[in-house]
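Q: What structure does this chain adopt?
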Amino acid sequence: MGDDALWDQAETVMSAILEDIRAQSNGKVKTGINPGEGAFYGPKFEYVLRDAIGRDWQCGTTQVDFNLPARFGAFYIDRDGEKKTPVMIHRALFGSLERFTGILLESTAGHLPLWLAPVQAKVCTIVSDADAYAGEVLAALQRAGLRAETDLRNEKINYKVREHSLAKVPVLLVVGKREAEERTVSLRRLGRQEQEVMPLATAIERLAEEAVPPDRRVG
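A:
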């Protein structure tokens, strides 16, 4: 779609933008031109991401579209009072959302930050005597806006920790008889061996703050 002059103009402008991107990123963003890869309706930018095992995936695009404005009969009045057909620029920030999510999971090996994880915390009991307290911990987490679940199964705590670690749950709050009596939790982070015992209120405060997406945090 469109005439040669329009394509040449668009390609010239977009090539200059590529140079600006390369310069402003100090070479951190690699750019290139793929001749013949433009869509029939106009040239486009493609954003290619590399996954955890080195595969390249084309995700988002910014596209110059000569086709739809003409088909819609869209126009604007220029400075000389004449009708002109505009060029549409449309974009797909992530490409296919499912594909982008898959790349995100592979690139992080499933180790998502707390604010992004589907299940942010699991409350795991050591003994059945702590079941009631685990329910209180779960309720406190949910009141703070956290996506949390309990694991009250009659299984050894090492089994539970291993299972939820393989499922990439960012935080485990382990509670037993002592934690129930002292109103504390044993906090375990994904990928770390050490655990930290702290008052329940302190754990809730820390996790609630961490669960806020970065762009919504104050200060």
